[in-house]
Amino acid sequence: MQSDVVVVGAGPAGLAAAARLAESGRGVRVIARGNGFTHWGPGAVDVLGRVGGQVVERPLEAVAGLPPEHPYRLAGVDALRDGLDWFRRFAAGTGLDHEGDAGRNRRQVTALGTLRPTCLLPAPAARELAGTVAVCNFAGFRDFSTALCARALEQAGLSARIGTVELPAWDHQRYFTAVELARAIDDDGFRAQVATGLARAAAGADVAVVPAVLGLRRGHEPWADLERRAGLPIVEAALAPPSVPGLRLFAAWRARLDALGVRWQFGFPAIGVERDGDRVTAVRSQGASRAVVTRCNELVLATGGVAGHGIEANRDGTLAEVVAGLPVQGFPDRTAFVSPRFLGDHPMGASGVRVDAELRPVDSSGSPVYANVRCVGSLLAGHDPTVEGSREGVALATATRAATLLAPALEDAGGR
């Protein structure tokens, strides 16, 4: 097989890089082990939520104070702005409007009642929490505690009470998942009856908080319809994975890439590369009976670092990048992987591949290892996307930078 660009990874960085390269007219193939962070994340775009343990209110201003090796400093603020603007246009075009801007963080309510800082919120999570908040669950749904959520909201200074929304008769009376309930709410008749129950459970409240299960296949339309029928603003609270808002977003990504002619190889991970001097000439991936070789002009690695299985830890404390064998700084021994505190900032989370200003991986001397390999997203060293709340922002900024760099490079390659 042959492709102009091979993108390895189907998380936020890989999907964004594939889309932007394809939009520029390049042939792209995505090779992925499986679903990426979209299925785990709450559907929002985190840019920078915390620095040095302190909550960040103005992420763009805070970027200037980050270390020079941080991915935002390497990609540049312009790439971050461009990536966010592009994402908002893309999401809105699929019926998944996001609200907010990079100038100031907003707050997303979670199932625990916490208010996590984020930059762009999906519209169903973006309504203001003001006045009396009715925290409502759907009868029989076990992954959301109204009492726990309401108590935390009250501790945050809000007036909250709880309610239960009775569901119409359906095929899952004893036990059901968030995805099953979201699919049911896609149905107009089912949703109409849910709206009646929600209006009753939230009567007298100014806004209702419900688990993030308001439809799966029709964008934000089911949420907007429920608001109209129930007669009050509705806020989706982020749940534990699998994330329904994340699944909505992944479906939109997939549809966009299919429309752009991007080829997919899903479920068979990349396992190595072929080289010619300082260039990668092909990517090897698992196949049903033998390894599959995809020849390429350029390679974009978006494998997600340790969390995405892009980096493996060895028993002696060393770390290994699993696709191209890129250098990764390790630890003296395995005990240094983690913090003494279970909920502390674990050093392993900041492990990654060092790159230059063109996102090419570099060795210990700072020289590029390969001329035609770019690394994007959480694979990059210099940041911990979980601790600092920057996963989607770094993904969009570095994908934008990589697409900008690769478009002219591929024109020069002349289809080699």
Brief summary:
By secondary structure, the protein is of the alpha/beta class. The chain has 11 helices and 19 strands.
Summarize the SSE layout with pairings.
Layout lengths: L1 E7 L3 H12 L4 E5 L17 E2 L2 E2 L3 H5 L7 H5 L1 H17 L4 E2 L6 E4 L5 E4 L2 E2 L9 E7 L7 H10 L3 E7 L12 H8 L2 H14 L5 E5 L9 H10 L3 E4 L6 H16 L3 E4 L3 E7 L2 E7 L6 E10 L9 E3 L5 E3 L51 E3 L9 H4 L2 H23 L3
Parallel strand pairs: 1-2, 1-16, 2-13, 9-10, 9-11, 11-12, 16-19
Antiparallel strand pairs: 3-4, 5-8, 6-7, 14-15, 15-16, 17-18
Helix pairs in contact: 1-9, 1-11, 4-11, 7-8
Descriptive notes:
By secondary structure, the chain is of the alpha/beta class. It has eleven helices and 19 strands. Strands 1, 2, 13, 14, 15, 16 and 19 form a seven-stranded mixed beta sheet that branches. Strands 10-9-11-12 form a four-stranded parallel beta sheet, sandwiched between helices. It is globular. The mean pLDDT is 94.
* Largest sheet descriptor: 7 strands, mixed
Into which percent range does the helicity of residues fall?
Answer: 25-40%
What's the pLDDT, averaged over the residues? 94
Shape: globular
Relative strand content: 15-25%
* Spatial gap, N to C terminus: 13 Å
Which regions have little confidence, pLDDT < 50, spanning 5+ residues? none
The number of helices is 11
Keywords:
416 residues, alpha/beta, 7-stranded mixed beta sheet, 4-stranded parallel beta sheet
